[in-house]
Structures are given as structure tokens and as C-alpha cells.
């Protein structure tokens, strides 16, 4: 039985563990966090490719049950007066779910066939002719057949197997902070947006409307910080939004007490190859696209393809990795292109740009091309033809898809 170590326990890693477990691989998943990460911003799925993979996992109904059902986002001024509205389909896709809820669904579907190791991380990789030796921050050294980096933009596997992050990361010029707050806004499956030049404040209700998710965005070039220093991150956000109006002062206070908090620069990962020897990259670790690039759906599709190719060629990881890259790289390129113009959408630089954007959104429901944005993103999400690996697999358990 082939052994696979997966680094990263958010979305891509557990999705891969699900498929590898069904194909008869023995999987171990190591996650730096001490437990599953709760909360987080909403993520969405759209198009046939995304939904087909979730359906074949047998998890689409459960994900639909937990979806946010977020409606339109109202654009407001400093006094809370509505200026325009952004249709829900642009922001939420066909199925939207909180990242923490999705992570829990994947964990519950994999925990019986995957060894989860929380509160630990990989410190070294040493490849041999027939294995890869791994050392950990806390656990004893172990040996695996393959190692997968599904550990995000700041991937430790990528750093160890491919080189420093700076060689592959491209900054998109926007930083964001996301955290949970009490829903003092009375939002019921809808959102609010407030903008000033170079900054944006977004608040939207959670599935449980007693709480809301706050997202603060601001334009920034070459901001340096320790990506693991949460207090430093909160200080940065406070300094940027300290003098802003609307609900910014209250949100900054609530941020300090938030049960969850995420901060980072929006960026893309551009790397010449997704594999090196017995190590391979999945999701944001290999092809992060930034906001708007449908990264969650891309990661879930990537996990499906990687597992399928490994199962189709269980004794030849080089061939499996090459076929995985051949199928996913062009798909990732199309998805990553969707993040172009991110700053103009999230953080317009002048009041004139904000006014123009709001006017366009206000007129959107009455324009003949109102569905163009949705069609463009759905077309990108569908820019891959999924193989039915049940026809090719000759190793381990034969997949039994939920749709037969």
C-alpha cells in the first residue's frame, strides 16, 4: 500500500486525502494548527467541474445544507445610506459555504481513513531512491512514498523541495484581514460594503445570523511582516483604518477580541513545475491565484485529478505527476486570470473611481449585459474536462461515485 504524507489540513489536503483513501492509499495529514480552523471567509463553487467533483465525493448535499445563502451586498456611505447594490450571484457563486464549515465537512469524510496530526509541521525532506524521509517539528522522523504540499501560499513543502517563497510569489497589491464579529448590523443573509480611496470594509452575515464576517481590504505595495505574527497583523490593520468612518472604529475594537483572524497580502504563485522528485504541490501551494481566482474550487478539482492520476499509475509517480500537471496547469492559468483588476474592484484608488464603480453596480440590474460577469467566471470554472478515473484505476479500491 502506497503511503502519502499531506501537509495542510484546510481544504486541498483533506480533499486529496478523501480520494486517496478511496483508491486504497494510506494517508497521513499534518497540520500546523492545533485543531481544525473554524470560521473564516465564505468560499464558493460554480460551474459543472466544481459541482461534479463535490457530487462524486458524495458531499454536495451536505455542502448545500450548510451554504450561506448570502444575498445582495449593499454599498453604503459613511452614514450608512445605501448607494448601490451588488447582486449575490457575482459574489457567492452557485454554492457558497464558510471555509470553516467546508473544512469540517471534509474532515468528517476523511477522519476514519486518514491519520491526522495536528500541531506539527515538516522541517526537512530527504529523497531516497525508493522513499522520502521526513522530519517534523515535534513528531519522530518517518518515511513515506510521496509528500504533497497542500499548505497554502506560505507552503513549507514548496520551500523545502523547490526553493524560497520569494522566487515564486507575485504580489497583487492588496492586503486583507478577515475575522468574525457579533452581528450588530442586523444582517440576515446579506452584506454591506463601504469604500474610501484605497480601502474597503465588507461585512456579511453568517449562516447563523447572530454572527457576521468582517473583511478589511487595503492597497499596499511591498508591505513586510511576519506571516505568523497575529498581533503584528492586527496592529497593521489598526494603523491603516484608525481614521476611517462608518463602522471601522467598532470593527477594529471587535477585531482584537475575534475568535478567529486571518491576515495576508493577496498574491499569486507562479512556479515552473508542480513536482520535484517525490514531492508535489496542490492548490495554493502550487498555483494560488488570489481573490476572484476561484481558488477553493480549483483546489478541489486539483485534488480529484492528482489522486486519480496517482491511482491510475500507482507504481510510477513521475508519470502520475506529469499527467496531473498537464491537466491542471492550463486550468489554473485560466482561473488565475480572473484575479486581474482585483485592486480596481476591492479598493478603487480615488473617489472618482469609487463613484464610477458604484454607478455601474447601481445600473447593473437594468443593463442587457448584467449576466456577463457571471458567465465569464462560470466559463473559467468549467475550463477543464474531468476524466472519469473509475474507468482507468487499476489500484486499490475502485471508486463508487455518488451519482453512480
UniProtKB/TrEMBL annotation:
Identify the Pfam families for this entry.
FAD_binding_3 (PF01494)
Q: Where is the FAD-binding domain?
A: 3-334
- Give the record's keywords alphabetically: Monooxygenase, Oxidoreductase
Q: Which domain of life is it from?
A: Bacteria
Cite the Gene3D superfamilies for this sequence.
D-Amino Acid Oxidase, subunit A, domain 2, FAD/NAD(P)-binding domain
Specify whether Transport is a keyword of the entry.
no
Return the InterPro entries for the record.
FAD-bd, FAD/NAD-bd_sf, FAD_aromatic-hydroxylase
Q: One MF term in GO for this entry? A: monooxygenase activity
The name under which this protein is listed is: FAD-dependent monooxygenase
- Origin species, per record, is Streptantibioticus ferralitis
